[in-house]
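Weekly sync, protein design subgroup
Attendees: M.S., D.O., the rotation student, P.L. (late)

Item 1: inverse folding check
M.S. brought a backbone from last month's batch and wanted to see whether the design step gives back something sensible before we order anything. D.O. pointed out we never logged the input encoding, so this time it goes straight into the notes. Structure tokens as presented (421 positions):
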């Protein structure tokens, strides 16, 4: 059986992409989801704060997901749950998705277009090179969130958190509300990796100290963590001797970054960006493999699920246009070159002939900035400049480009963020 579009992942990105593709005219869409239910990571995010941009109200993660799941069901979009995609191949006749599941065994599905929406995963402790023993009591923040919110288990009672990503900040508050004592949050960088609102609502409101430019240098305990040592780091991110502090605790939570889930993408030959770890895409969110699109956290890690939904809706529309023959496949476009404090952009290239009237370019900066200016140039010609009172690595930025600015131009674009003097 051949489908117009197969979507790999039934989280917020996959759901929004499916709805958008269906509304754009794609008649035969299939969602493949490895978990036993749709919704992805939202199912364990029981705190509110979701949907302010999309629905103009505060929702919990499950409530936000439920609205998209209901719409998917209203549109009659089929999905296969507990189904893991193990391979994706392209030949001259189209795309073949290979998946496995307990109910269907090995399944091969043909598709005119595929949308990658597998989300992201947490960086493991093994990537951190923390010295010390390997006792029980060390969890990723996401694992702890699942244990507390879905399975009803408390990971521990005296907690140190390494990393100030949003999940770690949210879990500092969650553990406190469940009766644990969160001793501190240590962050290697001189700035937080999370949203400012989460620092205020999850740490400041509960008097939980945030130690910037600090990291864990030792973990002790035989059967279970008994204490950890935290030290200040210098500009080279190496611990400074004499700054060590010991914390007696039974739990260490790691919130040290998220990685796009791109093992499948890499295996099939999708070109990945070195900064984000996600696919390199054009203005249609299409990868270097014709007919393969990417969106959401598999593309680059977002701070708000509302932006995931917006981006995924664009991927769904573009994939539908491709599958129905109304949108040309990607190719060489005008590159968007990051400059100044800009670390990366999504998309990476743009072709004015294929883009809509307006295109949202999303990006992040690499340091805290005040009184900043974001400037887009074509060659030496300034197209647009916008002021930003504050910019931070933990918050995704965006700039809207109009097609009319680029028509007839073949000059590369430069997106720069700098502090004004």
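Designed sequence read out in the meeting:
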């Amino acid at each position: 059986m051949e489908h117009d579009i197969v979507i790999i992942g039934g989280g917020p990105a996959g759901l929004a992409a499916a709805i958008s593709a269906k509304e754009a005219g794609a008649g035969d869409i299939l969602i493949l989801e490895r978990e036993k239910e749709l919704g992805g990571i939202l199912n364990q995010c029981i705190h509110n704060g979701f949907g302010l941009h999309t629905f103009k109200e505060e929702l919990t993660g499950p409530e936000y997901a439920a609205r998209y799941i209901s719409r998917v069901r209203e549109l009659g979009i089929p999905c296969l749950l507990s189904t893991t995609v193990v391979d994706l191949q392209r030949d001259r006749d189209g795309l073949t998705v290979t998946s496995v599941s307990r109910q269907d065994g090995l399944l091969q599905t043909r598709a005119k277009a595929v949308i990658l929406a597998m989300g992201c995963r947490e960086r493991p402790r093994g990537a951190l090179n923390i010295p010390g023993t390997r006792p029980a009591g060390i969890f990723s923040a996401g694992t702890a969130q699942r244990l507390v919110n879905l399975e009803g288990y408390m990971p521990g009672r005296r907690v140190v958190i390494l990393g100030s990503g949003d999940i770690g900040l949210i879990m500092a508050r969650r553990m406190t509300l469940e009766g644990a004592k969160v001793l501190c949050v240590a962050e290697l960088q001189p700035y937080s990796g999370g949203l400012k609102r989460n620092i205020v609502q999850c740490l400041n409101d509960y008097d939980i100290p945030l130690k910037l430019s600090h990291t864990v240098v030792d973990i002790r305990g035989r059967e279970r963590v008994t204490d950890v040592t935290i030290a200040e780091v210098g500009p080279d991110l190496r611990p400074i001797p004499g700054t060590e502090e010991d914390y007696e605790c039974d739990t260490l939570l790691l919130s040290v970054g998220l990685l796009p889930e791109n093992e499948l993408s890499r295996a099939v030959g999708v070109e990945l960006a070195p900064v984000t770890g996600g696919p390199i895409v054009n203005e249609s969110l299409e990868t270097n493999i014709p007919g393969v699109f990417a969106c959401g956290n598999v593309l680059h890690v977002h701070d708000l699920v509302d932006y995931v939904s917006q981006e995924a809706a664009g991927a769904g529309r573009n994939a539908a246009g491709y599958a129905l023959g109304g949108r040309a496949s990607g190719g060489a476009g005008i590159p968007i070159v990051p400059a100044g404090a800009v670390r990366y952009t999504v998309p990476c290239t743009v072709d004015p002939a294929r883009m809509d009237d307006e295109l949202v370019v999303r990006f992040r900066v690499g340091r805290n900035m005040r009184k900043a200016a974001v400037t887009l140039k074509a060659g030496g010609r300034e197209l647009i400049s916008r002021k930003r009172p504050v910019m931070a690595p933990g918050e995704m930025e965006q700039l809207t480009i109009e097609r009319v600015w680029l028509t007839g131009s073949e000059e590369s674009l430069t997106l720069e963020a700098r502090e004004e003097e």
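Discussion: The mean pLDDT is 93. Helices lie at 12-23, 61-74, 141-149, 166-177, 196-203, 263-268, 305-323, 403-406.
Action: P.L. to compare against the previous round before Friday.
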